[in-house]
Amino acid sequence: MNNNPSLFEQYTNFDRVNWEKILSATYETLFMTCFATLAVFFLGITVGYLLYRTTQRSHKKTIVAQFLSGIVNLFRAIPFLNLIVLLIPVTKLLLNTITGPAAALPALILSATPFFARMVETGLRDIDRGVLEVADAMGMTAWQKFSKVYFPESLPTIVSGITSTAIALVGYTAMAGVIGAGGLGNLAYLEGFQRNNATVTLVATFIILVIVFLIQWTGDILVRKIDKR
Amino acid sequence: MITFHDVSKSFITNNGQKIKAVDQVNLTIQAGEIFGIIGFSGAGKSTLLRLINGLELPSSGSVEVAGQNLAQLSANELAKARQNVSMIFQQFHLLWSRTVIENVQLPLEIIGTPKTQSLQKAKELIELVGLAGLEDKYPSELSGGQKQRVGIARALANDPKILLCDEATSALDPQTTQEILELLININKRLKITIVLITHEMDVIQQICDHVAVMSDGRIIEMGEVVDIFKHPQHTLTRQMVQSTGIDMNESLIDLWAQYSNVYPKGTLIQLTFDEQTVDLPIVTALSQKYDIPISIVYAQIHTLKTDNLGKMIIHIEVEEAQLKQLLQSFINAGVQAEVIDHE
């Protein structure tokens, strides 16, 4: 065996790849991404709607609006790596563990929700004001207005927003590897970096790319399908 | 059906200024009629219209719609009262995310009409407004006129008593405007709906309205039957509006007069107004022959109002003062309104 393998050999040494580990890491990445995306979807729409409603003219500069906007800006400003470390005690309290895919969720959700909420807010702002007048003139309740006007009329923005958010979350899950959250990022760090196995890093990177492209592709198709403007 | 008692509405603008959009308005709109409100932009028409469906509430005075004072209703009662009043808009304001039929069904969903019933109703309305076959199209696939038809069908879905039209034809070309106006008349007749419309185009008033109110700076400066307003406009603004119908809208009649006096530097310009009884009689020719006066016709137009036909004519003559008086008297005796608009 060559003690100084060539660059090509370092990246193509598939004998050293434990495919079972790859598979379970892929599963962990998918779990974290999907679960976090789902949670961020609902939370982000709620926060985004509240942001929009509280900053409308009649409510302008209310305490609620300032508080909400402040919180959102604060969490958007904290780098993800800091946030995940910062949240370790909270995570321990909530889940009784600080490792594994579930342990990464609080930080993933908390960092992505403000990001997505701002996109939802933008989508709501873009709705034709006249359509909102129609809703009022028809005597819609607040819930009817949300479900029949706000949500469907801003859906393309929401879908493209959640697509970007999901892709960002895939990146975050890789970073979550530092607290031993599992997943492909963690695997690349443990196997690829610490054990000097470049092939595993390459395979993990490739799978992450596939996941990202799949998300983008699905999002684009969905937006094209629902946007009838 | 609709009564305004001393209604005023003020707004505070962003820089703290108080603006009176509607100022001391009194008016009554009868059930089943088409009532027009005309004025230039900023005259307060839009605010007046929104006082009828409670989107705006008066600062003072009271608005009564179908026997209810809107300001005294609770939020729930107001939502219910709004079911009686529908609205169509200049920019249509359809939901792009819904198909034609889904847009029409929207008001029915709000009041919880069962699916099959609302589908049936929506289909009938789409048929009524002449869009059969386009049920599953999206608004972005329709022309402006078709979009307004969807707007009308949507507005009629919950069987309102009143239809408010906010510059409903202003974004449409003349041909399409005609079609939409005919549709509105048709709806007014068939469904006995009271229609209140605001516009800045006298042609719209002329063609479909029974009564008209002229607004300027938040006040109603003139109000009455369309025929009377066209025959005897009192206010200068109303005169301008009446005279602008049929003439190129960009030219006010004052400009036209200036042109006429270039062509006819001497003599007298007289404006004649013929009503339903006199519009088809050869009065000008008869008088020309009787007094042996050559009469030049400068301008002539027949206005087809909803109920009446009205003729407007501007003639030019060069005669002595005494003969002029005699001629004017003869016109009046023949039932024609005659008015000297420019003399020497």
Structural commentary:
The complex is a heterodimer of chains A (229) and B (344). Chain A is mostly helical and 229 residues long. Chain A is built from 11 helices and no strands. Chain A has a single domain (8-226), classed as MetI-like fold (Orthogonal Bundle). Chain A has helices at residues 7-11, 19-54, 63-77, 80-86, 88-95, 101-125, 129-137, 142-153, 155-175, 183-194, 198-226. The longest helix of chain A has 36 residues, at 19-54. Chain A is elongated. The model of chain A has no long low-confidence stretch (mean pLDDT 89). Chain B has 344 residues and is an alpha/beta fold. Chain B has 12 helices and 14 strands. In chain B, helix 4 crosses helix 5 (144-156). Residues 247-252 of chain B have low confidence and may be disordered.
CATH class of chain A: Mainly Alpha
The total strand number of chain B stands at 14
Question: SS-based structural class of chain B?
Answer: alpha/beta
User: Poorly predicted ranges of chain A (pLDDT <50, ≥5 residues)?
Assistant: none
Query: What kind of oligomer do you see?
Result: heterodimer
* Total strand segments of chain A: 0
Radius of gyration of chain B: 24 Å
Approximately how much helix is present in the residues of chain A? over 70%
Helix and strand run of chain B: EEEHEEHEHHHEHEHEEHHHEHEEHE
Supply the helix-strand structural class of chain A: mainly alpha
Major sheet description of chain B = 6 strands, mixed
Largest sheet of chain A: none
Provide tags for this entry.
heterodimer; A: 229 residues; mainly alpha; MetI-like fold; 78% helix; 0% strand; B: 344 residues; alpha/beta; six-stranded mixed β-sheet; four-stranded antiparallel β-sheet; 12 helices; elongated
